[in-house]
Structures are given as C-alpha cells and as structure tokens.
C-alpha cells in the first residue's frame, strides 16, 4: 500500500480499463456481483466473479489514451423568459421546459494507456490444448 510519502517521491496511481466484452456474450454477469481481481502485476491477471465465473486477462497497449468518465445527473437548466407580459407577472420565478430531456454531467475520472481484456479461463485452456497438439 502506497503512503502519501511514497506518492510524493514519484509513485503514481496506474489505471487499467477492464474489457469484459468477449465474456459478456457468453455468460451472465449479475450487477453488483462480488469479485476478486488478483495478479495485476503478472502478465495474465485472474478475475473471479461471484465465486463462479473465472476469467483470465491479457494486457494490451492502447493506440491512444483511454479516458474514464463519470456521469451524474446535472441540475436542470433554468431559463427565464423576458419581454412578455407573462414574464413580468412571474418576475423572479424560473420557468423550465417540461419537454426538455434530462441532462447528464460528465467529468473525467482518470486516464489509462492499458486495456485488460478478459476471456473465460476454460476458453484459454482449450486454446492451449489445441496449440500443444501437433499433427502426426
């Protein structure tokens, strides 16, 4: 665990984007399922989801920088109408458009140079078995 003293000497947090696209079509990953991610400092980290789904990852460098964004509900924009007799009668009150689509506020959280793509562990074992079998 890095202390604030370690970070002051040049240790920086490193972020990695986890890519589960190849897995999501084959297995159902329940929302908010507990998970264990281990071996981040190895070539093939392991991700275990809900004590049932075991995945193996492989790092890939990105062509550019991945930017991770956080999305929050934005406060509605307030428009005050001016120039009409209605606006004068509602002076000081805000009028919002009920047909206006709710807006989201997006802000950057971090950036990453790496993607960690995951596959089912059983798929990786099948690939290794096929590559180790040599034609006679």
UniProtKB/TrEMBL annotation:
Residues 84-102 have a biased composition (Polar residues). One of its GO terms (biological process) is transcription by RNA polymerase III. Residues 74-106 are annotated as: Disordered. Residues 11-120 form the Transcription factor TFIIIC triple barrel domain. Coiled coil: none annotated. PANTHER family: GENERAL TRANSCRIPTION FACTOR 3C POLYPEPTIDE 6, TRANSCRIPTION INITIATION FACTOR IIIC TFIIIC , POLYPEPTIDE 6-RELATED. This is Transcription factor TFIIIC, triple barrel domain-containing protein. It comes from Helianthus annuus (Common sunflower).
